[in-house]
Predict the structure.
Amino acid sequence: MPRLLNRINASLERYLPEKHLFLRSDDATRFIRLRPLTQLAGLGGITLAVGWTFVASSILAIDAISSGSQRDQMLRTQAAFEERLNQLSQERDTRAAEAVAAQNRFTVALEQVSQMQSQLLASEESRRELETGLGVVQSTLRNTIVERNDAQRIASDTSAMTGTDAMHGPERGEEFTAALDILSGELRQAATERASAVQQAEEAQKAAADLAQERDQILARNDEILTQLEDAVTISVKPLDDVFRSVGMNPEDVLETIREGYSGQGGPLTPLSYSTRGDAALSQGETKANQIIVTLDQMNTYRIAMEKLPLAMPVKSSFRYTSGFGRRWGRAHEGIDMAAPTGTPVYVTGDGVVTHAGRQGAYGNLIKIQHELGTETRYAHLSRIRVTVGQRVSQGDLIGDMGNTGRSTGPHLHYEVRMNGRAVDPMSFIKAAENVF
């Protein structure tokens, strides 16, 4: 080893000659010999220190520049996101106004249908009364014609008897003359009554025709309104159907589950009664009305199911989305993160029962709420918990405050939605609510 060092020093002697450093004190003088290899090591150390200083300065400068550009980019992204949120809010308000207008139109249409049905029944009753009166008039007319014919036959017989029995004297002729006057008066009265009956029959027939025409118009209008109602409720059901499909639920299973919980029946039974009024057109209208009622029942069942899903926002104050659902840092992130200051109120997103309210590992302070239809929501990293296990909560109730507990880099809410134990994207529920309400 010494030989190798001597050789290295000898080869470096021409470039770095050996130097001596004298150290003088009050009572002694010492010197330090700097051999070529020692000088080379010192120069190398100085070079490394200067190079490291230059590289570190460059890295800090580049990081400062990149952080500034990233900050600007984040500000632009935040501005774009807030603008998009404002647009979504405006669209939601517009759709809410359209829904209210549609509901008002639907209510007015139902009132019109009810009024038209009442008018239709009244018209049908009037038509039947006129038909009955027409039958009575026709019967009276037939009886009057028969009486007139009998009176004419009696008058002719009387005239014949007057010609053959003129010899019986003036008293008999006076009797026949009086009888003829009575018969003539009755014939004139019968003719007058017959003309009046014919006129009444014609007026009744005309009124019946007018009533039939009015009835047909009411039926046509009723059918048109029912068709419009049927189209309106069918169109209204489709967005609700899409909501459940967008969150991974089968709408038929949802409807069946809700109906099982709302299927009570009862009350006294009364004997069946049958009505002979109406015709095929009425039956067709009733069939269409029944179909509309079925669709309205489906809409109402969807509405009940919507109330049981966690569709509201857990944070109503200003916040930032800092992490979405899916893969993050090589692992699954089973919720979304909403960042806001510590103490920001956190609200429950749907009706349910609290099944956990306490600390749990990386979640920190955690609240679990079990909803119906197999859904569960989780609210993690809270600074304060305001509910207890077993407590029943309603959508919009305050349940806790945002915090920085558990595995967390800053104050935020970790919000999860689970379907039958499987984590799903909470944004699908939030977007579904925006598309309906």
Observations:
- The CA atoms of residues 137 and 203 lie 11 Å apart.
- The helical segments are 2-12, 36-164, 170-246, 251-261, 280-308, 426-436.
- The first strand starts at residue 19 and ends at 24.
